[in-house]
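Progress narrative, Year 2. Work on Egg-white cystatin from Irena cyanogastra advanced from sequence curation to structure prediction during this period.
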Amino acid sequence: SHSFMPLMCFTWMFCVVSVTNVTPPHSTIRPGFPVPVNTNNPEVRRAARFGVYRYNNSSNDLFLFKESQIKKAMVQIVRGLKYMLHVEIKRTVCEKRDHSSLDSCHFQREKNLQRMLRCYFEVWITPWTHKVHIPVVHCH
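Result:
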């Protein structure tokens, strides 16, 4: 069961629909053809955060994880923008039950609580419906 998620999330579980204009990162991209995109691109970073929300929603970890590095990003125009992201995520000091905003969550400094996972996310954004669909989340 794939669930659609509103576009803007302020905490790991509190999301509201927000009207944003998502333009393709590069105007020469042809539909259906995945191309590399800069990992510092704001839309790429936002897509990575959506993948992290999805991971946190499905994990049974006590703590929230947050993206630490986007290693590789591709984007494909297919009825919207589909991002294919290789992301490293790390455990933060924020506990899930506190519903913290990830922006204010720092990474664990305590050695025995530190954890890093390598993830592959597919994040599909359809701007005109203000929907985000995350069909693939693989972390190890």
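The helical segments are 42-58. The longest strand covers residues 63-77.
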